[in-house]
Amino acid sequence: MTDQDLIAQFLRTVPSAPDGGTVIEVCEISWPHPHEPEGTWVTVTELPAGASQERIDRQISKILRNRKYFRVCQECGERQPRGWMHNARICQSCAERNHGVVF
Fold first, then answer.
1. How many domains does one find in the chain?
2. Which residues, in sequence order, are CB contacts of 29 under 8 Å at separation 6+?
3. How confident is the model at residue 79 (pLDDT cuts 50, 70, 90)?
4. Facing residues of 11 across strands?
5. Pick from 40, 58, 59, 71: CA 20 to 30 A from residue 14's CA?
6. How far apart are CA 24 and CA 12, in angstroms?
7. What burial letters (b/e) apply to 2-35, b meaning 16+ CB within 10 Å?
8. Does residue 17 register a pLDDT over 80?
């Protein structure tokens, strides 16, 4: 996935009431049951009313680089949501493809 794909699927901006600011949320993935991921939207930051699109985009880029939410696989080099990582170093796809892990 490209960063743009990750932004489209796992990040969103929503207006905050009542001040008219912007909330940036990230979808955190958990696995309450095998083979059944669950996404939960959590607020990462809130920007004040009148925040420019450039400022919003900078915050989104900062979130993409935050290891709390996304990690880069050391084998394939792709950034993934943390919930799609097998461990801190490799993604689930590389774990299956290269290490015989079965999910």
1. 1
2. 37, 38, 39, 81, 82, 83, 84
3. very high
4. 26
5. 71
6. 6
7. eeeebbeebbeeeeeeeeeebbbbbbbbeeeeee
8. no
Tokens 């450039």 locate to 54
Count of CB atoms situated within 10 Å of the CB of 52: 9
Q: How far apart are CA 92 and CA 75, in angstroms?
A: 11
Query: For residue 40, what are the domain limits?
Result: 3-99
**Ordered strands of the 36-47 beta sheet:** 11-15, 22-33, 36-47
pTM summary value = 0.89
Helices assigned H by DSSP within the chain: 3-10, 53-64, 92-99
How many angstroms from the chain centroid is the CA of residue 40?
11
Token pair in block for residue 83: 């919930």
Query: Could you give the 3-state DSSP secondary structure of residue 93?
Result: helix
